[in-house]
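Hey, resending since the last one bounced:
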Amino acid sequence: QVRPVESGGGLVQAGRSLRLSCTVFGRTNTNINKFAMGWFRQAPEKDREFVAAIHANGVDTNYGDSVAGRFTISRDSAKNTVHLQMNSLKPEDTAIYYCAAGSYHPQPSTYDYWGQGTQVTVSS
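The structure tokens again:
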């Protein structure tokens, strides 16, 4: 079983930065690094939104339109960890942020394993 666990959420003022991390746990013989990793977010009464994804090769990345140029996704394969650096945060970035393992695709349904989420709140 593959289990992503997010950390790093919190309350931050608009214009500031925050870094989320996601460590992926699995069985000893599970090649966790074969998965692409994605970040999604969901605000109250809204659909889950694609934020960013990083390919299993650790090089190719993809971003949602609302965060492109402000957020950066990266992965540390040796530590089975993916990071999401969020700069120039806006109040509309407020949401629960989820880490997921699976495809390199913006559609949530293409990801097989999901974390519990971490709350990010941006005050104006």
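The chain is about 0% helix and 50% strand.

Sorry for the duplicate.
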